[in-house]
Structure formats: C-alpha cells, structure tokens
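Exercise 7 asks you to align residues with tokens for two separate proteins.
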Amino acid sequence: MADQQITPELANYISSARVALALADVNDDHRLVMVNTAFCDLTGYGSDEVVGQNCRFLQVSRSRGKSENVDALTDIRRFLSEPDVQTVRTPIVNFTKDDKPFVNLLFMSKLKGPSGTTRYIFASQFDVSRSHLSMLDSYDLQLSQAISGLSPVLQESGMIIEGSLATIANSAAMIAQAKMILSQLEASNS
C-alpha cells in the first residue's frame, strides 16, 4: 500500500487517521503512493485501484464525462507549480466508483524534506455536497488534529508540513458553493 520511501511512522499515521487522507509523489504526475481506509470509503475505490494514479481520475464520470472544475483546477495548478504556495483548499466535483457525484472539499499541503525540497503532496478529502455546517466543523477539527499529530511524525522522518493550519477555516460560503455546484451538475444531467 505504501511506497518504500515512506517511513513506517508516516504510513501508520496516515492509515490510522479518521479523515480521508492521501499521499502523492511530487514526481511522475503526482501519482498516489498511499491512501487510507477513509479515502477508500469516501470514493468507493480500493487502495490497489488508486495507488499509482493521479487523483484527477476522480473528476471523470462514466456517464457525464469530465467535470470542468475551472476554479479548483486553477487553484490546484497554482499550488503545484508555485513553490511559495504551501497549501490549497478548494471545492472540486469528484465521482465515486459507482459514478455518484460529490463535491470534495480538497485540502492539499506540501511535505518537505530537510533540504526544503517538496517530497510529497499530502491531501485530505471531505464530501461537502450534502453536509451541514456542523459536519464541516467536525471535519475541520479532525483535520486540524490530524495535521497537528502529523507534525511530530514528520519531524521524526526528517520532513515538515508548512502553512497548513492557517488554511483550515470554517466557511459557510464553501458549503453553499459546493451545494450550488452539485445542484448545477444534477440539473444539467436531468
């Protein structure tokens, strides 16, 4: 499930997290090197089906084609291409294995090695399309706890995560935007 370069401590930490987490390589098209059970539960895919792929496959529906996700993709491309952008949080339309659309509140952060070079992309996913604000509050708390607990594990592995907690902020506007995106998607398919 985990790439050989991932330390056992980091692999165990990600595996045991209650929130959906994924780890991607910074090379070779940002292919996933590890996902946890919560990720698999959210998407319907097994880890053996997704490790080695770029997460963009989640944007493609068998029946609807590829989601546009213009704003989200702009934010993600900026995050991946600009060294000074340490984190991104954006709603993006994804599809489960059974082709069900959902709006994923994607959070991504760069994990850096001792030399300051980005080694991995750390990501968390949360379905906000049918969520209430109180569920987002709970997710934000769990994600904040996961990132806080991740920092010492990364230090043991000689890595750091920068700027993450500042990006996590409750946002009723994001929930409203996510619900609007999903309703537009469902209306266009009717």
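Second protein for Exercise 7:
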Amino acid sequence: MKIAYTMAHGRGELDLLLAELAKRLEARGVATRGIVQTNSECENDHRCDMDVQILPDGDVIRISQHLGKEARGCRLDPNAMAHAVTQVARSMEAPYDVFMLNKFGKQEADGQGFRDLIAEAAASGATVIAGTNPLNSEKFEQFADGMATEVAPDIDALLAWYDKVNAA
C-alpha cells in the first residue's frame, strides 16, 4: 500500500502544504480526490473559519461553526463534515490516482469522518496522503496497520515520496 502522512506545526502550514501538493499533482495530470483545507480569518475573533475544497475542483464547504468568542470546544460542524464526506464519496466514483485528506483528526481517530473513504482509496490501490497532528498520529499509524510512511512537511519531500512509490 502507498500511504503517507505528514505533520506541520505552524498555524495553517499543513493546510497550505497539502493544497500546494494537490495543485502540483494535478498540474502533472494526476487525478486527485479528497479534500484540502483553506482557512479565512474571522473579523471578530482570532480564530479562523475552516473551509475545505473538494478535489479536484468541487465545492468549497465551511466545516467550522461559530460558537461565540468565548467558546473553547470543538468548532467542527458535524453536518458540514458529513456533507463533505458525501461529496468526496461521489467524486470517487470516477477514476483517480491519489486520495488526499487535509487532516486525519478526532473524527477519523474515532472511526468516523473520512476513515472509510481512506480505507476504500487504499484498498483500490490509490496513493493516500493525509495530514495529521501529534495528537492523532498514533491513531493514524494504527489505522494504517504499520503501512504508512511519515514524510517531512516539505513539498519536495512529499513529491519525492509520491514519485518513489509510483515509479513504474
């Protein structure tokens, strides 16, 4: 199986990295599916809104909800996330080479979210590239059953890994 994950530590760095990776792969003619995240700053507080782009050129869906300035809980909108999962599942009906996930997060670690689509993509022989964070990286490794490779959060490193695992 061709499964990789990467982690970046600066705010929004992982999102920018994976969006750029998707763009570069698509420019090479690689068919991508999944989601990448874009963040936009909120005017009233310092937290960003979370939007995901359905790959390769689908809808942009806001997956965060505004809970108020003092809220400390998870801002993920479960209904919007379910809608994104449905949209990606539909897109996977067409042939593709790579499945990308902006973040293997709490939902996936708990067996929900994009978890089944990641498994479907890997089982189909597609290359899988996911972002994660230290909190969920162990759960991702367990989910991948030891078959995932951690790749440095660097565009050149990710492209080199992709080229290596997809060499004919």
